[in-house]
Amino acid sequence: MEINGAKMFVKALQEEGVDTLFAYPGGTAIDLFDALYDAEGIDMILPRHEQALVHAADGYARSTGRVGVCLVTSGPGATNLVTGIATANYDSVPLVCFTGQVPLNLIGNDAFQEVDIVGITRSICKYAVTVRKREDLARIIKNAFYIARTGKPGPVVVDIPKDIQLAMGSDEYPSEVNIRGYKPSEGVHVGQIKRALAELKNAKKPVFLCGGGVNIAHARKEMQQLAEKTGIPVVTTIMGKGAIPTDHPLYVGNIGMHGNLASNKAIMESDVLFSIGCRFNDRITGTIDTFAKNAKIIHVDIDAASISRNIKVDIPIVADAKVAISKMLEYAEPLDIKGWVDDIMNVKAEYPINMNRYDGVTPEAIIRTINDMYSNLIVTTDVGQNQLWTTQYIDIDENKQLLTSGGLGTMGYGFPAAIGAKLGNMDKDVICISGDGGVQMNIQEMATAVALELPVTLCILNNGYLGNVRQWQELFFNKRYSSTCLRYRRRCNRDCQNPDKCCPKYSPDFVKLAESYDAKGIRVTKPEEIRPAFEAARANTNGPTVIEFFIDPTANVFPMVPGGKSLNDMILDC
């Protein structure tokens, strides 16, 4: 039987088990949308901007472990996906992004809304392809889903010209994938595992460093078992937080630019550093030539290209984190390192991260209230100080999950990601923690959350600044606050040190803005108002709630390692 390409597209989604499609219509995709009109089992989500759309698909994918799927039209619709594709690529999130395209005979003629989206995205995704033959459509879609979810997960772009959507062809959908040159590793070299464990056996100061790969591989349970079996302390990157529960006695904390002293000290003093699913980026390592310079380094990563790219590795292990950890559990033995663990934990107790230096409503108090009130939770963040405070204070265990843009650092990610996460996990509470700067990059998605009646809580930490850059300007640029004050007007005094006296009123009023969308808006200005605000948000089960928290504009994120410095050069406070 023959069907047109648009109907094959719908059949492919159904065969791949797609139940949620984040989509925004347009001229070159209108035939696909028409075919979807009668499709059973696919929930069509209409966000208000394509960038938010791909972030929502990202949040859905991260929170469920399934492939996130989106569909947009050509030209600006396609280019609006670029930031979200790059975000997913950095953080290894499986997405399949479908874009409409002008007919084949118009490609290259500067047709209306024509862009070379394959050329644009090739360097920021796992695979990008334009379908040029109707007979290839089903195979390409099948391959796209396989590539996105296997090996090191990531985004795939499939560009479908309008004439391919209308062309007739077979209704058969492939049952198998056979891609020449793409054979993801599924096992692990046992010899390398035994070499690594032999190094651990002789270690006096070993440390496990867990990156996002542990969470992507759904290896939390196995990682906790490995830590408990060996007795080795665990530190995490921001993306790796939750690899073992944050209240576990072997969990030290996050490392890197805003990690705690105990974690960075553990890394720098270790004699064997066992890294699993971590890229060793600059925010983690600080100055490379001083990073763990006395340690033998073992690196487990599913991507061979990531090993020894930034940090020279002594024992490489190319494998999926869960596969490698499971194999290690077969051979691992307890280590006699209680003194080392006690030393690290004593440092953690002596130098806790807190915001006691600040009065009024603090991010610490907000996040600790969330820890206390919510037990079945997904937290998303935007990027900036809000993200860093969240990663410092949020508690993560088997019933809690943290979604954040780690590698690209994308402002505007948090709220649409929360919408996607809620759609994939209706049984969980979902909270987005954002700043007053980043939230405005996709605040229009409040309309989406209201239309879908999603009880998502959006926490806006309002300090009137682009806070993370302001902090750098305060510490390293002699308080020259260039373009970071969100109350600034052309006639303002740029050297103003007290915005309440010399700056205009802050705009927008987030409570009124929420109410204009028919959402619930709450403003918090005192510590005693924090818990009642969350109680009211939890009681609002028919739509989103915005809680605007006014925090100290001068509040900074500490500890901090200045850019280009060693992890030994931490600023504990100012």
From TrEMBL:
Its cofactor is Mg(2+); thiamine diphosphate. It comes from the Bacteria. It catalyses: 2 pyruvate + H(+) = (2S)-2-acetolactate + CO2. Binds 1 Mg(2+) ion per subunit. Binds 1 thiamine pyrophosphate per subunit. GO terms for molecular function: acetolactate synthase activity; flavin adenine dinucleotide binding; magnesium ion binding; thiamine pyrophosphate binding. Pfam families: TPP_enzyme_C, TPP_enzyme_M, TPP_enzyme_N. Residues 382-549 form the Thiamine pyrophosphate enzyme TPP-binding domain. It is an enzyme of class 2 (transferase). GO terms for cellular component: acetolactate synthase complex. SUPFAM superfamilies: DHS-like NAD/FAD-binding domain, Thiamin diphosphate-binding fold (THDP-binding). GO terms for biological process: isoleucine biosynthetic process; L-valine biosynthetic process. Residues 193-327 form the Thiamine pyrophosphate enzyme central domain. Residues 4-119 form the Thiamine pyrophosphate enzyme N-terminal TPP-binding domain. Its EC number is 2.2.1.6. Pathway: Amino-acid biosynthesis; L-isoleucine biosynthesis; L-isoleucine from 2-oxobutanoate: step 1/4; Amino-acid biosynthesis; L-valine biosynthesis; L-valine from pyruvate: step 1/4. Keywords: Amino-acid biosynthesis, Branched-chain amino acid biosynthesis, Magnesium, Metal-binding, Thiamine pyrophosphate, Transferase. PANTHER family: ACETOLACTATE SYNTHASE CATALYTIC SUBUNIT, MITOCHONDRIAL, THIAMINE PYROPHOSPHATE ENZYMES. Belongs to the TPP enzyme family. This is Acetolactate synthase. The lineage of its organism: Bacteria, Bacillati, Bacillota, Clostridia, Lachnospirales.
